[in-house]
Design brief:
Largest sheet: 10 strands, mixed
Radius of gyration: 18 Å
Order of helices and strands: EEEEEEHEHHHEEEHEEEEHEEHH
Number of strands: 16
Number of domains: 1
Strand content: 15-25%
Shape: globular
Number of helices: 8
Helix content: 10-25%
Amino acid sequence: MRLPHSHHGQRLLHLTVAALTLGGSACSAPAGGGPVEPPAPDCAPSPGVGVNAYVVGELDATSVLPASTGRCVRLRPDSHFVYASRSVPLRGRLFLFLPGTGAIAQNYRLVAQEAARAGYHAVSLSYVNDTPVGTLCAGQSATCYEQTRDEILTGLPRSGVVVVDRGNSIESRVVRLLRYMQQRDPARAWTQFVQGDSTLRWDRIAVAGHSQGGGHALFIARQHAVFRVASFASAGDLVAGIPVPWMTTPFATPAARIYGFISERDELVPFAPTITAWSGLGLAAFGPVVSVDSAAPPFGGSHMLSTTATPLFPGVVIGPNHNVVVVDANTPRAANGTPVFAGIWRYLGVPDER
């Protein structure tokens, strides 16, 4: 759940469990999900409503209320945050970041800004993430985890424990946001990441997420061949430390494109089972877990990174070590205020190759 604004000037997340995801209900959508259709009259955007454009250093920044992209996008109304560089050539890649349980896109501006500085179109997305998947699926069959994540991602009515329609799904929210940004900023070609104006071009998208959002990033990698995946403080879904069935089936994205980063002191997601789960996805083929505290990129090529760094402002949120790897309020800063992990974020989620 959200906590009040702190003296650090941001709303902070309150994450209370190790397994991850959400809940809600919504507006009308195409029966059975499928590609996003052109906006219906009741889902037409409200241009200029809830939109704020500004500059952060050499970045153009835009905060966009979801309803500005379509009036039917009513769940989790907190703003999306969008960034693009004013000086670095664009790479034709989208960096998509998914917040943790109860968190908002505002909590993850720094990592999105770093992706934009690397030449990516960058989005920190607001989506339906009120309740952890582990809570929703407690006492349910092992298939609940896959069904719940699929409903949150696509809007297909699959789970029975959440109600997320197509218009409020992750996929539709991203498509609608890209369409909106295309109208607002056509020179940057935001809809290059949408196929046929309806389906996301996952092969051009680097998906990252924290906690519940990291689990969604891994689930997307299982469903689609994406350009890159970075899971922050998330093993996906574990029950008694054991991966649920969807994690043991083949992934569309090869392990060579999947990376993870976690604190060894994480209070909410157990470190050792997480490394075991990542290893089971094939990440161990690229070397053992490497501590970023005593190594530098490229970390011997490892796809599994850890830290014991002290969180910034550890007393203002539950689970500061859980958040230290990527949350703005807790991730450590250098003397000049820049994130200590900025180079690590680039290594994990926004590679230089085109």
